[in-house]
Amino acid sequence: MNSVYLRLRGKLVCLLVCLGVMLAAQSHAAEHMLPQVYMGQKDVSGWLMSEKLDGVRGYWDGKQLLSKNGTVFNPPAAFIRDLPPFPLEGEIWAGRHSFEQTISIVKKQQPHNGWLQLKFAIFDVPKADGGFTHRIAEAKNWFARHPSAYAFVILQTKVRNHAQLEQELQRIERLGGEGLIVRKPDARYKAGRSTEILKVKNHLDAEATVVAHLPGKGRNKGRLGSLLVELDDGRQFKIGGGFSDAERETPPPVGAVITFKFYGTYQSGIPKFPSFLRIRKDHDL
Predict the structure, then answer these.
(1) Domain, as residue range, for 141
(2) Is there a single domain that holds both residue 71 and residue 114?
(3) pTM of the predicted model, to two decimals?
(4) pLDDT at 255
């Protein structure tokens, strides 16, 4: 009887340890405030706008730097030395047209000096009280006292009117930027998609999973013609544009998650004029 009891107790202890590990891992994944898409649905005069940086989302919990899903990054000590003891949210960024470079750096398991090519561009202080203006002021005040070579607070500019918003969007896109983010100044931090933070682009983008490679014709005979992809809701459609010659020769593998751009949807919900942008290599971070 004692041996049976000991075996059962051992299994129970193992189960509790495993459960604890799982819960600890889940606790690293913070609930983030996320933008909705701006479709001209509201007047954003008086809101704050900034460039939408195309980087890897980072969450500083006061001690370590995490991905949006709670994966622990491994920057060298110099990169995080001057970060505050309170949480920050931002983009880990190497500049415009540098997303692939950023991904290759942050995915490495050990600290390395590649991180010193990056910046932590801060856009919120999630645990601070009050509206956005008050929260972001805490980050500004910290870095005024503790300047960092590897972190900065993203510049926010007040929106005067829709025409100014359009002009700024065009300027950023001419420079190779992705678009804008506009935030309501007094918006409190809350997890999930919010109508008080909006992303502004001249096109929409979304993610889909590659289901199949469809052969090309004419100039593309013998290589990729289009991808058959599937959205999270199960709808499937083809993407035939946006690929370089190299990508047609070696297309995104079946099962990969890709980002594509499009211009509205049909009544069926299928995206109009979809075009390939890139493999979403940070999907699992």
Answers:
(1) 37-200
(2) yes
(3) 0.73
(4) 95
